[in-house]
Every structure is written in C-alpha cells, then in structure tokens.
Design a protein that fits this description.
heterotrimer, A: mainly alpha, MetI-like fold, two-stranded antiparallel ribbon, C: alpha+beta, 6-stranded mixed beta sheet, 5-stranded antiparallel beta sheet, 8 helices
Amino acid sequence: MRARLAGPLLLAPGLIAIVLFATALGALFRLSVLEFIPGSLRTGGVTAANFHAVLSAQYLRAIGDTALLSAATTILTLLASYPVAYALARARSGRVRSLLLGLTLAPFFTGAIVRTYAWMLVLGSSLVSWPVRLLFEPSGVLVGLVHFSMPTMILILAAALAHVDPALERAAASLGARPARVFARVTLPLSMPGVVSASLIVFAWTFSAFATPELLGGGRVKMIANVVKDLALDSFNWPGSAAFAIVALAVTLALVAGLGRLLTPRAS
Amino acid sequence: MTAARATGVAVVVLLLAFLTVPSLVVIVVSFNPTAIMAFPPHGLSLRWYENALTYPQFQRAAVNSLIVTAAATLLALPIGTAAALALVRHRVAAHAVWAAALLSPVVVPGVAAGLGFLILAAGLGLLASRWVLIAVHAILVLPFVIRSVSVSVANLDPALERAAASLGARPSRVFRRVTLPLLRPGLAAAALFAVIVSVNEFVVSLFVSTRVTEILPVAMFTYVVNYTDPTMAALSTFFIAATFVAVFAAERWLGLARVFGLEGHARGGPSR
Amino acid sequence: MSAGKRVVALEGVRKAYGETVAMDGVDLAIDEGELLTLLGPSGCGKTTTLNVIAGFVVPDAGHVRIDGAEVTDRPAWQRGLGVVFQSYALFPHMSVADNVAFGLRERGVGRAEAGDRVREALALVRLQGVADRRPAQLSGGQQQRVALARALVIRPRVLLLDEPLAALDRKLREEMRAELKEIQRAVGTTTVFVTHDQHEALGLSDRVAVMCHGRIEQLGTPEDVYERPATAFVADFVGASSALTARATSGDLVEICGARIAVRLDRMLHTGETVRLLIRPERVALGSAGPNTIPARVSGVMYLGDHSEVRLELVDGTRLLASVRGRAAVSAGERVVAHLPEDAFLETR
C-alpha cells in the first residue's frame, strides 16, 4: 500500500543526517583506540593507552571538577529559575507573559561568546572585582554557567508548571490550605517531573560546557571540554582528545538514558 | 498586594535583572571611548563600532555565517518537516528509536561532535571545504526544526486531512492545500530556531572551520582571546539588539508560548 | 424508502486494533435513499464501521462494496462519498465558501458553476450571509451546517454523518435533528448516521442497526427495535425497561412476588420454569386493583415537566420503573398497585 511507504520515505533524508553524524562519532571512537605519535597527526596501532591516560590523576581531577561544577550549577540554576518559571507559567496578562518570555529568551539566543564576554566585563569590572575576585576563578565560571543555564531551565519548568491544572490549586485552597501549603503539597510535587528533567538537561549540558570556562576561567579552570580542545587543537594529540571526548559523551548519554528511564512511565 | 506577593515579585525582578544586566553592561561598554575596559565608562564614542564593522576577519566571518546559516536552514527545513510528519503522523516502526537518533545531536557534547567531524573531514581531505561546515550546521539544527514542526503537526487535526480526502483530494493535493498551509506557524518557528542556533553555533564550528571558512562566533572567540579592547562589545551589541528584536517579533507573530508548550490548561486551545 | 437498490454492502468485515476488536464480523446492506443509523454505546464499533465505509480504515477481513463494486482497498479520495465529522473538520485557513467549494475544486468544477452550487448548498442548510467568514467566526450550529453543505454540494453517492449533533446543546440538537431529516428527504441521498443517542436514532431513521462490541445486535425499523427488541442489550439500550424475574405457573401465567400475572409472549411457557421479563415504564400503570396487578411501594418520584418517573419497589425489593404523563398522583412512601398489561412483556435471557 502506498500509504505504508510514506513514513519510511519521509524519513530517508533524515537517515542520511543520522548516518553522517554516526560516522563522525565512529571516527571519534576509532581514533581513541589508536596510538598517539607525538609531533604528527599520523597514528599507530590499536591501544588502550589513551584511556589509561584519561584515568590518570590529573585528568580524573578535571572530570571530578567538572562534575562538581555541574552539580553546583544545576542546584543554583534550579533555585534561581523556579520563581521566574512560576511567574511565567502563572502570568495572567498576555503582555506580562510576553515580557517575561522575551527577557528569558533573549540571553538564550545571543550566543555563548557574547554572553560569556558580557560576564568577563561585569566580573572584571572594578565594581565587582574590588569586593571579591570572580574573574578567572571557579566561582566566576559558576556565575557564568548559571546565567547560561537559566533560560533553558526556566522554559522547561514553566512548561511543566503550566500543565499543572490551576483547578487543583484552587481545590487545595478550598479545602483550607494556605498558599505556602498549596505550593508545597500540590504545585511542587506535580512539577517534579519537570524539575527532574530540567535538572538532568542542565547538568548534562553544563558537563560539556566549553566557552564559559574557556573565557571566564582564563586557563585556570579546566572542564572536560577545555581539556579536549587543548589536547586536540593545542597539543595535536587527537587520539587522547578523542578518548576524553568519549568520556564526556558517555557520561552525558548515561544521564540522558537515566532521564529517559525516569520519564517513561509517565506519558506526557 | 500582600507582603508575600510583593517579595515574590521583587525576587523575580532581581532574577530577571541578573539575566539582563550583562547585556546592558556590554551595550554601555561598547560606547567606551578608551581601549581599557572601564565600567562605568568615562564618555561616549562610536569608534569600536567602526572598528568592528571594518575589521576584515569579522567581515569575512559575517559573510561566512550568512552563507552557512542560509544553506543549513534551507537544507534542514524540508528534511526536518518530512521527519516530523513521519514521526508524528505515520507512526513508523521503531518510532522511538528514530526520534532519539534524529534528536541526538542536541545531546552529544559539542567537543565530541566537533572532534569527530574534524577527524572525519580530515580523513576525507575535506577540511578546507565550506560544505563540511554547512552539513554540520544542518545536522545540528535538524533537531530544533523537527521539534518545532512536530508541535505544529501534533496540533493539526487529522480529521482535516480526512475531510479533504473524502472530498476527493489525492494525498499530494491534501498536502498542498491543507497540510502545508496549516503547518506554516511551525515552519516559521523552525526557520527562526534554525537561524538562531546556527548563527550562534560555536563549539563544533571551532573544530571544523579554518581561518578562511570560520563563522562569526569563532572569529569573535579568537578576537577575545587575543585582544582586550571593546570592539567585541560593539559587535556583541549588534547581536543583542538583533536577538531582542527577533525574539519580540517572533513572540508577537508566532506566539512562542505555544511553541514552548506554555499554553497549559484553559489557555485558548484549538477553536471549535 | 428501503427495498430499493442496494448501495452499500459490508460482508463479514473485521477490524481489530491490537487487542481491541472494533468490528467483529459485521454484515450490513444499505438501500438507496434510506437513512440508516448505527446506534450504540461508545466503543461498540459504530464509528469504525463508518470509517470503513468511508475508506479511512482498511478492514482486516471482509468486503466493502459500493453499488456492487468492490472498494475494500480503494482509498477515501476515490470513493465519492460525503462525510460530516464530529468535529466538523472545517479548514480553518479557508473561508466558508472555499470550504464548501473544496470538493468541487477537486472535481475540476469551474469557478462560476462552483459559486452557484455553493450558494445553493448554503441555502439548503439555511445558512446565508456567511460565505466570506472563517470557521472560527461561526457558532457551533453554523459550523455544523457548513460541514453538511460541504459534504452535500458534491452530490455524494452516500452521506456519512459521524455523531454530527454531539457537540451541540440540547435545544439546538433537537432543531438540527428535524432539519437534517427534512434535508435528507428533500435531497434523497442514501445516508448513514452514527449516534449513541437513541432518541435521535428513533426519530431520524428509516432503519436502525443497534451495535455492541463490534457486532450488530439488531437491524430493523425504529418500531422493530423499540417494540420487539431482539436481545436484552437492545431492550435496555433503546428505551428504558425494568427487569422482573417470574416463575411460570402455566403456559401463559406467571407469578411475580406472589402476584398472579398473565403474560402474552411469542411462545408458551413450561410450568415451573423461571423466566426473565422486561417491561417498559410507559406501559406500567398506577391505579386500582384488578387483574394483572402487583402491590408496590413508591420509593421516589421525579417530576420532569411533561412526564414523571415513579420509582417503585416490589415486596421482594425488585425495582420497577413507571412513567406517567404530567404530574404523578402519588408520593414517596405510599403503597400503590401497579398494573402490568399482559402484552407489555418482553422475554429476555
């Protein structure tokens, strides 16, 4: 039946994109198990040396730092995003909602370089650096990362909150619950799936952050992505860099798989 | 207004300020008359704007960005629309697997994808080619296109296509006269997303471009690493201004709230 | 009316969605010019049946014929039928006129002629002056008329209506019901109507097919289906009824709660057998003692304007529903006597 062919036919061009992408990742995998010959781009035989190097103390510390920074970013972003998301989801006037949405989206779309550069200015300015040194410090990178992640988290949380039926909150109120209780017993629990998925997304994204630590860290804060770039574009150790990139990829995929498992029983 | 609500509003205002202040700082600094970045600045000057606009590498990078983004968007739109229709409407076998695969570029860390494409391109001897960059961008914006169009497809009442069929329209006519016109909001949003994502794409492009083919964000990155004058502030102000305009215009015309799933209960659903 | 040419024939049609069987061997023949209703509760398969006739759903087994020709595998756009959807499915991006003209444009009808026919169709459904509006600007009732006009203007072989009145409020529904019947009579198109509302079914149809669990329980005229239900399901779904358990004391006498009741069924009973009987509330009369009466207590009265529902309880707790015109002369708690006419009983399993 012609109708039955329609689906696969429509997916065919997408298949090409998938194949290209998979091939690139395949090249990455392949290179990560080849020997690095210092000083050249040629590679030797198959070896696990690259992954051994990844697990050395210096690199493990980078992985650990990355995880810590990502966790801190996620928590702070969550705390900062929830109120804005709540306001956005519950905005009664279309104009207020447009304004909130616009302000949330605008930094999102100005791009990593611009946003990071903006923070370089703010953190490096005399106003800010006099009380506390933030530029080129992990704390400065943290501020930049939180700022980077907020729009995403606000949008996801707002969507989750918008799907919490306001009638449920009204029902709780009619049964005698104060606003704080309504929030704690009805709104927050019902928004949990959104909280969890947003947190995992922000964590995964921050784990692979590059521009923010590169520019705001001034060479002193190295997250996994920075190490990958250093190895690849500065030391030309492509195999080592590939191994490291795969570690980042593996962690991210594990997180996403975990997210998928968490969300599957609950159909959206 | 109760004290609780007032505090809530104040908190939200502060947080929004946190989101917006950096952009404002950039704009102010861009008018700084001296090369030393001082905030607050000591006067007003347009020299950095002039510098930004005449810097050859920026000019070349801007042209590259235009070409790459336009080409990538034109590629991704039909591919993404077809995929969205297949996934949402036609219930292809192993649908979840296809969806995951098509949306995976978002999930994969930029450095991993960038390095992978670099290795692949180098292996094929295509490093100097602009087409690598275009293909990479198309793949990277595809998930966003699919997601935007999927929302529109999901909102499209299947009864409308059945009605058209019952009135004698063959499938291609149904697509042209009913489906496509009704998908227009989703397609417009998809194009907007694609352009915004592609224009700002940095990490993967850093790995895959050369000095000749590099796009604007990469050129900007190189500049910031090497120079500390406010030229970057001027260029950034252009970006910020353009983005603000685009976002507010899109919200007005397309209703971005629906695209982001912010229309929950009792908020104007499909009209009967 | 029926007994004419057979326009649509379904033979042994089966359709299942995974574990759920929507159509379980449906045989149906629809005659020229008749209005046949598929009646049943949600999930009984009536909409699937309509979709199979329309060509939106391909059956797993069986045949669909239109005018004798096998169309089981023919796609919807080649069947030349008119469909009115429950949600109306008006194209939101086109004006009313363009909506109605859609089928004509697909058939290559020229603009001038299409314009005339559109005007004609809108006049037929009594909707003038809205040709240039968008569907979103119309009320539910108006949208429904546009959907009808759109389906009729192409002069379809068969008109299929999928619960078209379901979304309208009661008053509008009753008005449209009458209009639909008039229009169908005037145009004479063979029509299949799907509904779960038995009043609609009884009032509109030449014949009714009562469906349950993917099968047709009974196919007959409205009187057949109401007065002579073939199964307990039909008796219960079409109109209300009370179920009574009786023990036969002779060929045509039973005992219900100690009372002697004469019954006239289509068979003779065997002495001593237990039989389940159904009786419609409007046949139960409240009044004085006499033959075929049974004592009962009034457990509740509901006044509904043109009639009242009197809920009765027999000595052994069995519930009996009576319907009287206007206001009931009894009130809750009273002991009364219910008269059950001997020809009012239906046997059920």
